[in-house]
Amino acid sequence: MQMPRGLNGRLFYSVLLPPAAEMSLLLLSMLLFAVVAPSAAWRPWPLMTLNSSGSGSDQLLLFGGSKKYEGSSEFVHLKYHMGPVLTNNITVHPIWYGSWYPPQKRIIREFISSISAVGSKHPSVAGWWRTVQLYTDQTGANISRTVRLGMEKNDRFYSHGKSLTRLSIQSVIKSAVTARTKPLPIDHKNGLYLLLTSDDVYVQDFCDNVCGFHYFTFPSIVGCTLPYAWVGNSAKFCPGVCAYPFSVPSYMPGFKPVKSPNGDIGVDGMISVIAHEIAELATNPLINAWYAGPDPSFPVEIADLCEGIYGTGGGGSYTGQMLEDKSDGATYNMNGIRRRYLVQWVWNHIVSYCSGPNALDQ
């Protein structure tokens, strides 16, 4: 299979093949997909700024006096493998698969828009994204600070059924970018494609410690190479796994769920997984950039290293110090444009710790 390459470490291109070669590539792609598993998100169980040059080689880190870093380990060796990262402005194109209510869409849209928002109350989603911005490509250019909400596509009639495989997810994306009416743009340079399945759709391996994953589309299926992620609504299938800590699994007696910040356990649980996948898509879109471990078939990425950590002291089944709204009892750790969210931390490779906003930031 001809793997997609970067232009100057930044751009993606499509691979066009004759029909006979495309059939051979499809078979090879399916084999590769079975061997090289998409990077998956699963659950449960100092302030920093970039200098004016934006260079990754001489960043100014302003560490506060409080302990706001968790999960350090001398055994974690996150390395850059010279692949492209998303240094251009990022546009997220949601695909709403299945039955979605308008309030659910608003929660997710506003989270994506909050990543680049200016003026959100501290601690903020934008502050969380600054850790992701620390990652660079081979030229020293940082991950873009700009993440925009792009065009959207609704697939309310379950065009590929209510049970999807990892490969059929790519077929859903193909339907979205080749639709006769209002197709999503094919954006190799800036686009991320976010497939969101409603709570009555089952995806292969869902709830088996998998709440979402990211990968890139095969030209043999979609016609081009596009980075994408899938995240499912677990409200009916496994909220104790994928909506933790808003729901607690039966194998954790004595633990009480916390109140979700937006009143929807399934969607509030999705937010952290969406954040997880966008962070990893930005730093490892083609599974050849930033990851730990010697085997690219099983990459450990910047969000994988911090699963379940939402604040200082987090790790294992303990989420760490989080904020609680005194008026309604909702639990969160960061503020968006108009809403609050609970989002896991990500790995800071400069200091080799998980880092992010939490209760100590107020």
TrEMBL record:
Gene Ontology cellular-component terms listed: apoplast
Keyword Secreted attributed: yes
Main location: secreted
Annotated Pfam families: Phi_1
Keywords: Apoplast, Secreted, Signal
Top-level taxon in the UniProt lineage: Eukaryota
Keyword Translocase: no
Subcellular location per the Swiss-Prot or TrEMBL entry: Secreted, Extracellular space, Apoplast
Family membership: Belongs to the EXORDIUM family.
Protein's name according to its UniProt entry: Protein EXORDIUM-like 3
Organism encoding this protein: Trapa natans (Water chestnut)
